[in-house]
Amino acid sequence: MYQNIVFKGVGTYHPATKTSNSYYIKHFKSMGIDVSGLIEHLGRNTRCIADAKNENAVTMAYQASLKALLTSNVQPEEIDIIIFGTDSPEKLIPSNALLLHDRLNTVNAHQIFDLNSNCIGMLSAIDVASRLLQSNTRLNKALVVGSFLGSFISSKSDPVCYSNMADAAAAVILERVEEPYKRGFIDTNFKTDPVVKDAFQFPACGFSKLYDNETDMEDKKLRLDPFDTSFICKEWVDLMQVLFERCNISKYNIKQFFFSQFSKPDAETTLDLMSVGLDKYTYIGNKYGYTGLTSPIIAYNEALINKSIDYGDYVVFCTVGAGYNICALLYRL
Amino acid sequence: MYQNIVFKGVGTYHPATKTSNSYYIKHFKSMGIDVSGLIEHLGRNTRCIADAKNENAVTMAYQASLKALLTSNVQPEEIDIIIFGTDSPEKLIPSNALLLHDRLNTVNAHQIFDLNSNCIGMLSAIDVASRLLQSNTRLNKALVVGSFLGSFISSKSDPVCYSNMADAAAAVILERVEEPYKRGFIDTNFKTDPVVKDAFQFPACGFSKLYDNETDMEDKKLRLDPFDTSFICKEWVDLMQVLFERCNISKYNIKQFFFSQFSKPDAETTLDLMSVGLDKYTYIGNKYGYTGLTSPIIAYNEALINKSIDYGDYVVFCTVGAGYNICALLYRL
Q1: What pLDDT, in 10s, does the model give residues B134-154?
Q2: Which domains are assigned to chain A?
Q3: No. of H helices and E strands in chain B?
Q4: A170 CA to chain B: closest CA distance, Å?
Q5: Where is the Beta-ketoacyl-[acyl-carrier-protein] synthase III N-terminal domain positioned along the sequence (chains A, B) (predicted)?
Q6: Which residues of A touch B101 (CB under 8 A)?
Q7: Which residue of A has its CA nearest to B325?
Q8: Do A325 and B110 touch (CB under 8 A)?
Q9: Is the pLDDT of residue A71 over 90?
Q10: What rounded mean pLDDT belongs to chain B?
Q11: Mean pLDDT of B75-82
């Protein structure tokens, strides 16, 4: 028998307010910048934007977690672990995990923390939660939640960030189950190389300058020095190849790939380099914008809804975070 | 043979600038507040305060990590995992772990992330790192680092925070070794109960209000609504008792206890409740101030220097974080 760590259920949350490409084209046109080519290239259409007055990382995570509990048919008191992934938290003290614990009334979730590895954060958190459940048989269920407020941290004068980033939360309930064959969380492969550590910074000035009166407001938000991201395609291919060899599986056995939803062409180039058909991936960055760490999980949820994946299928999550670090995660439904 | 996860070495960093009780007594006297009784009660004498212009969470973590590598006789390229614990980060994007990776040139540390569970953060991170190493035999060594800038996040008009909190970093190198008997990381016990979630908040206004012009500067920093912390003593006793029962060990076999260094009387009351002698704990909160998540590790380092613990000894780390959550961790040298 195998001790499998499986996704018991997934929940996502998208704010009610939708914005379309035309809003951003008009916004930046007034500054003399044409973003139409960029947003079309990356694959945008609509985005969902949080209500800055009433929503934040914790409220969005709460909504996604409620849905994940519902689809899992799990009660809050069954949760043992909460890992809250975010790089746009509401608080640093107390942790967002603790604030979520309070809202959900997860009275038995004693091991809880926030985790930040930027846009690979939900995959990192799923890896950590899976290994905590594997190595500690007193614990049975984990809630992994990611929350991203891209619209809030972006400066309205940054054409790449403001016109592409959006807001969302996603949650997954993981459970340890005993089964006669191996499935669920299989393995991960990570790579970190901080060569573009300065390209993408929030707060750009650093917390150590955040309270200085001399620091410009724009410098207190997210700053992107644009760079060509397409090198990531070859990196992803190498990362997945090592993972597939380790797990003794062929890329042709993967039913669906869930990439970062930042750039549609980067996902498609990666599949081309692997000679894998473009029907093997799910793109939702057109509907929801780029929602950071939540984006591969939202794509997975879409594939569940579309029934393009089913029990027994192998799937791969593959994404990239600021700096950069990359992660590929192999999962069997 | 046992696969033990052991502390290969520890490093600490304290900024050069020292402040004494008289500075804080004078500072608050000018506001009509007498803090002399409070700081004496909690056990303060001197504190080390970072240079706000040139130091931040990452620079301090770098100094502590260099010392930990040196005392461990480990090269940066041997590190596989970096977990950076902090609730006073320098950046949210990229992660502080990635910025530290860049400075240390830990070229093979591919699984890296920031972890925040406030003042229990280093114990949480040691638990996670230990279990990642236990469950993934491709990984051999982890760097767990904590960095706390208490002086920076505190408002200068908050008598409890500003007069007690100080700045420090601590780092531990963990390694998996095969040995004929069980030692190293043994087990943890956590408890979370968000009953005092509003008592201690940073930023007090939340990030969602941090950029509002109407938000008062004081509200953008740490806010403490003082409450009696002494209930934690009984909580710690219960937490440790469960851990000892699980691990089949008597409290009388513990050579040293390393508590949160926030309150000397809380540590002593806890030992009294357990009928354990006051020679069994190490207090350094008089020399270094309260340094958040780093404080139990700095106490451990002091015990190593003082030779009050030795190879084969059992020790317990036991601390509390905002909200609250508590953790006890059993380790055998």
Answers
A1: 999 999 999 999 999 999 999
A2: 2-179 (3.40.47.10), 184-332 (3.40.47.10)
A3: 11, 13
A4: 19
A5: 113-194
A6: 192, 194
A7: A110
A8: yes
A9: yes
A10: 96
A11: 98
Q: Omega into A94 within 30° of 0, i.e. cis? A: yes
Distance from CA of A211 to the nearest CA of B (A): 8
Could you report the per-residue pLDDT of B302-322, keeping only the tens digit for each? 999 999 999 999 999 999 999
What's the 3-state SS for chain A? CEEEEEEEEEEEECCCEEEEHHHHHHHHHCCCCCCHHHHHHHCCCEEEECCCCCCCHHHHHHHHHHHHHHHHCCCHHHCCEEEEECCCCCCCECCHHHHHHHHHCCCCCCEEEEEECHHHHHHHHHHHHHHHHHHCCCCCEEEEEEEEEHHHHECCCCHHHHHHECEEEEEEEEEEEEECCCCEEEEEEEEECHHHCCCEEECCCCHHHCCCCCCCHHHHCEEECCCCHHHHHHHHHHHHHHHHHHHCCCHHHEEEEEECCCCHHHHHHHHHHCCCCHHHECCCHHHHCECHHHHHHHHHHHHHHHCCCCCCCEEEEEEEECCCEEEEEEEEC
Using the beta-carbon criterion (under 8 Å), do B128 and A132 form an inter-chain contact? Answer: yes
Structural contact between residues A293 and A85, judged by C-beta atoms closer than 8 angstroms? yes
CA–CA distances in Å: residue B278 to residues A225, A278, A292: 56, 67, 50
DSSP B118-166: GGGHHHHHHHHHHHHHHH-TT--EEEEEEEEEHHHHB-TT-HHHHHHB-
Cis peptide leading into residue B324 (ω within 30°): yes
ipTM of the complex: 0.98
pLDDT in tens, A74-117: 999 999 999 999 999 999 999 999 999 999 999 999 999 999 99
Contact B201 A87 (CB under 8 A): no
Residue A298 has pLDDT above 90, yes or no: yes
Give residue B127's pLDDT band: very low, low, confident or very high (50, 70, 90): very high
Q: What's the pLDDT band for B198 if we cut at 50, 70, 90?
A: very high
* Beta-carbon count within 10 A of A192 CB: 27
Asked whether the bond before B226 is cis by omega within 30 degrees of 0, the reply is no
Residues A315/A309, Cβ–Cβ less than 8 Å: yes
Residue of A nearest to B203 (CA): A91
Residues B327 and A115: their CA atoms lie apart, in Å, by: 18
Measured CA to CA in angstroms, residue A330 lies from A89, A226, A228, B280 at distances of 28, 30, 27, 47
* B192 vs A contacts (CB less than 8 Å): 98, 101, 109-112
Distance CA B79, CA A67 (A): 39
Report DSSP state, residue B261.
S
Q: What is the pLDDT of residue A226?
A: 86
**How many CB contacts within 8 angstroms connect chain A with chain B?**
198
Residue A218 tokens, joined: 């724009």
Given a contact cutoff of 8 angstroms between Cβ atoms, the answer to whether A14 and A150 are in contact is: no
